[in-house]
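Hey, resending since the last one bounced:
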Amino acid sequence: MTWLLERADAARCARKRADAVDSATIAAAAGIVDDVRTRGDAALRAHAERLGDLSPGRSMVISRAECERAALSISASDRALIEQTADQIRRFALAQRGCLTELDAPVPGGRAGHWIRPVVRAGCYAPGGRYPLPSSVLMTAVTARAAGVEEVIVASPKPGAITLAAAFIAGADSVLAVGGAQAVAALAYGTESVRACDVIVGPGNRWVTAAKKLVSGNVGIDMLAGPSELVVLADGAGDAGEAALIAADLLAQAEHDDDAVPTMVTTSTTLADEVERELEIQLRTLPTAGTARRALRNGRCLIATSLDEAIEAVSRLAPEHLEIMTREPAAVARRIDHFGAVFLGRGSAEILGDYGVGPNHVLPTGGTARFTGGLSVLNFLRVRTWLEMEDSESSRAAARNAARLARLEGLEAHARAADLRSH
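The C-alpha cells again:
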C-alpha cells in the first residue's frame, strides 16, 4: 500500500541532520553579501531590482510615517486583530524579560555581578514570497521592543499594506522593502540608507539563511532556519475526532511549502490508519493540496511499540514544533529531551503558536533544538559582568593567587600587575 505518510519503525528512527543551507547557495550568496558590503546602496538596489524585490525608482526604505498610513488604510477589524496579536506577544515577551534579573554577589575580596542590557539596533526579517507573513513581523519586532532595543528595522520584500501595518503596530522604526541575501547584508554592514544592526533575526528562505550564516560573527543572529517541521505524538487514547485534528494539524504544516516536514509518532496502528484516511478526505477540499501532498512525502508515520519508544524517537527527531496528544501530556513532555516548542493536549494546536497566543513562532529546525531554543528577548540582550575589589586582606590574597597562576602560564606582565595589588 502507498501511504501519504510513509510508515516506519520508531525504534529504527534516525535523524537525518542536513545542513540548513547548501554550499552552492552559500557561495552564490557570498557574492551578493560582499557586493552590498562594498558598494552599499548601489549594490543593494541593483540586486533588489534584478531579483524582483523592487521596481525601478521605488524607495528601498519605508518610513514609520508611511507604515502608519498603511495601518490606517486597512480595515478597522484587521487593525484590531493585529493590535491584539501584538499585545499578546508583547505580554509574553515582557514576562520572559521579567524573569531575568541583575546579579550582585560576594566574591573573595569584593563583589561581582552582571547587568543585562539590550542591543542598540535590531534587524527583523519577515518573508514576503507566496505567503507574506505579517505574523513574523510581530514575532520579531514586538519581541525586540519588549527587550528594550532602541531601533528596530524590519526587512521584507515587496511589503503590502498588512505587512507595513504590522511593522507600525510592532513599533518598527522603518521597513527595508528588500529581501534575500541583499537585505541581510544591508542590515549587517549598513549602507547609505540602512544603519548597521547588532542582531539580525527572523525566518527566511535559503538565501536569507545563507546570508545569515555568512554575516554571523560580525552581527548576532538568532538561528539558521531550515524547512518547517511538526511532530505529533499520540497514543490513541483520544476520542474518535482525534484523527481529524491530527490530520488537520499535519496538513497545516504541510501547506507551508514543498520542503515542510510533517511527522506523526504513535503507539497505535489503528490511529495511524484513521489519520491516513482523514488526510485523504481533507486533501480533497484543501486549496493548497498540491503543496501539502508534496510535503507529506518528506514526513513519516513512526509506529512505536511503547510510549517509552515513542518518546525516544521524538527526542532523536528534536522537532521544531511538537504536539502531544497522550494521557498526561505535560508529564510526557518533561521526558522528551529536545524540541523547539511543545503544544500540550488536543486544544493546544501548533497553529495557535504560529499566530501569536504568546510564545514565539521563530523556532529551531533541523535538529538544532538539541542546542538552542526559539526566538525570545534573550536574543536581544547582553549579559555584562562586573567586578569591584575592596582594599582588604582577601583582595590581596586573590591578587597573590592571580600572580602565581600567571607565572604558571609564563605571563610575567600579568603576574607583575597582580603583584602590585598584593601588598
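The chain has three domains: 23-221, 226-373, 390-419.

Sorry for the duplicate.
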